[in-house]
From TrEMBL:
Species for this entry: Cynoglossus semilaevis
UniProt name for this protein: WD repeat domain 93
Region called Disordered, residue ranges: 157-209
InterPro entries per UniProt: NADH_UbQ_FeS_4_mit-like, WD40_repeat_dom_sf, WDR93_beta-prop
Source organism, top-level taxon: Eukaryota
Transmembrane feature ranges: none
Amino acid sequence: MADRYKIGVKVLELSATKELPDSTNSIACSEDGKYLSLGHPRGLSVWCVCGLVWAAEWLKDRQEIIAVQMVSMSPEAYLIGTIDYMGVARIFAYYSENIYLLNVINSADDVNRRKVCLTFELSPSGNYAATIIGCNADVWLEVYRLPTEAWTNQLENLSPGATPFRDPEIRNQESGEDEGGQKWSPTSAPTRIKPPKKRSRTRGSTTESSRDVGVVNFLTFCLSVDEDAGAQNLKMDMEPINPACEVTRRGTHHFLLPCGHFPGASKAYAQPECPVAVCLWWTGSRNLLHYYLQKSTKNKPDDEPDILWPNANEILCSTVSRCTRYVVLGLVNSLVCVWDRKTGSPLSVVSMTTVDSPFLRMRFMDYIPQCPAPTDEVHILVLCTSGLMHMVTTGRGAEPSISQAIESPEDAEDFPTLVQPVPFLQSTLLVVQKNGTVLLQDVMKKTTLCYFDPPRPRVIATPWNPVYALNMKEPCLYIRGDQTFRSRVTSEEEVIGHLLVYNFKESELFKPYLITPPNSLPENPFSFATLQEQCNLYLQQRALGVEQRNKDIRQTWEELLRRAAEGAL
């Protein structure tokens, strides 16, 4: 193992360890850093971070939890979102050392029409939940408004004999009561958003006479072109494998916080951590679709976007900044498009001509204090399918800077399976490689800070899909490590999982890097009350980029003149 490490790089010592429930496959840390949620084949457990002691559990046969998320609903109550191995999503509450099952998003009653949750996400404040659902060949997004205030009041007013568990098969679906007699407030009816289909050109100006002169509604045109291109691309991808199979699209969504002008802006800015919209793109699409969570038009279909941002090429991956002002899209042909939600226009479009493989995923670097920059400068990490990683720095009217953050792996076993910015360590990345190596990378200095080497005979579990969590309040890394031994009774190999804890405060190495992430998002200096204010800001920022645009125009004309001269010869 040691021969994988670079000479002279520190190996961080283990701070603590604790045996985990069998086959724990998901870990989440609460926002206040007090609790850990563990998903495993027997259900769900909650541990106190202080001392790593058991606090509560929800156990049920054949309910293996494979994904878990934990957010704060109040100072004493927490929401826990889970998905089990059957694709059933649930919402729990942890309160007063008990776990309560509040809601089951989808049931598995009808096997032929079983809805499978492909992804499930709670918004940071717990006010909304979004899930991508697949059923046979169909796929769609469902968004729920959660009654967090009512749930908090119900938890605080629980009778002493209330049952903390609820079985979805026993629950009275109409009354919302569980077998213990507790009635929880229901979630709102979901907003269902399906992939856009070809639109009939009869809306607005698209009458029979307007078709003759080629006048087409912009939204209809973009969705129609996108559907044509997406269906053709997906068909070409699927036919060589199985011509008879049905094409299924996957969706990627992000919750968006208040920013710019939108319906209910004045009310939303009073709750800066409550999302106001969700943005979404589908596999094979080049359009980024926005849907307001507070609808202003009653007659508009749910799946018709409120805002559409068209892009030059098909979208491969996306990410958003912590404040969600910037949405970054990785496109085909190595294009990176940074959209600014304040102006509703691209902040920058970067062509990464040196990249030799498609984009795989992207991450924002929100904390780079070493690089003083204007407020609209962003730093983006781009990981390619070859394993090569680049840092892209760009801003409005500024020349983009592209540098190599991580070299392309020499061996397939060195491929990075996890690349995660560490929020409490400035300009650092947590990297897990396929061979089980875990390291911390300084992306600005392009050096390896340290390795995380668990004591033998433990090894990092499932390095192709590591089970880990970061604690922002107590700067720690929690990661699952396995120890294999041969049973004396059965002579078969058995695996015991351990929670490995690395505390960054215990090492002098990290003192120059440690930062304290803000408890809340920064106040928004541009809370537009009118569309005119938003337009004024857009024009001001356009003026900042005049010099760069003039330079680009001159270069373009020079290139055209050069090619014209070559053609004349």
